[in-house]
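Researcher: Quick test of sequence recovery. Tokens follow.
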């Protein structure tokens, strides 16, 4: 996928972290994406203090590009700069989390609506293929792999919306909520429920029913009522 390719692209290196590689990323931007990945997969959970020296040693760079990467993360509200306390991975309150998922649900609902009108045959084949893969992974009970395939399902639909601004904004919000979205997968019965919900969304998109696709995707992503309560109980 485009997002994966951009994040894994090779970046240049220099003492000041400003040399650009073929992808156009600076070294600091490359490190920023790597730290973001560690945050999203739970290696750096909310509340973790990011030590510049430790991060620099982890990635084999000087502290200068790490410092710049942390400023980029702070600009996206993924970390907090607390002066003498250092840099802390940002925790999100239940209220903020609910609002975040509500907005994300609308964005992803819109992507499903647009995809239902703009998908080509290659997109349709990719969507069917990734859904089949998700069904297979669900049968194994491998939650981590299930989550990664689940993200790809959503990404196929997002890219098929053919709306670059929507893609950019949705990915940015996903990045902020990723660790919480990942933990939703651990809610009891979430895997089989996801399969059913995804199939309904997929069928609506393939049928060209934008209204239904929007509604089903919005409801799938949103965390409301008992679902939010269950999620917060698991997360705590």
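Model:
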């Amino acid at each position: 996928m485009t997002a994966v390719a951009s994040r894994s692209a090779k970046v240049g290196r220099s003492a000041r972290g400003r040399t650009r590689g073929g992808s156009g990323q600076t070294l600091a931007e490359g490190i920023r994406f790597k730290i973001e990945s560690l945050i999203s997969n739970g290696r750096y959970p909310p509340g973790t203090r990011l030590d510049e020296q430790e991060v620099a040693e982890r990635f084999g760079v000087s502290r200068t590009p790490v410092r710049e990467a942390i400023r980029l993360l702070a600009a996206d509200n993924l970390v907090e700069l607390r002066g003498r306390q250092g840099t802390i991975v940002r925790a999100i309150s239940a209220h903020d989390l609910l609002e975040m998922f509500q907005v994300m649900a609308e964005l992803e609902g819109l992507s499903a609506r647009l995809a239902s009108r703009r998908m080509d045959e290659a997109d349709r084949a990719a969507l069917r293929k990734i859904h089949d893969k998700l069904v297979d992974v669900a049968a194994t009970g491998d939650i981590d792999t299930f989550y990664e395939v689940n993200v790809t399902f959503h990404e196929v639909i997002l890219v098929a919306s053919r709306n670059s601004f929507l893609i950019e904004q949705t990915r940015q919000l996903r990045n902020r909520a990723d660790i919480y979205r990942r933990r939703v997968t651990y809610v009891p019965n979430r895997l089989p429920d996801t399969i059913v919900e995804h199939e309904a969304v997929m069928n609506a998109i393939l049928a060209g029913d934008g209204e239904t696709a929007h509604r089903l995707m919005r409801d799938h992503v949103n965390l409301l009522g008992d679902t939010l309560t269950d999620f917060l109980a698991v997360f705590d």
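Confidence is low (pLDDT under 50) at residues 1-22.
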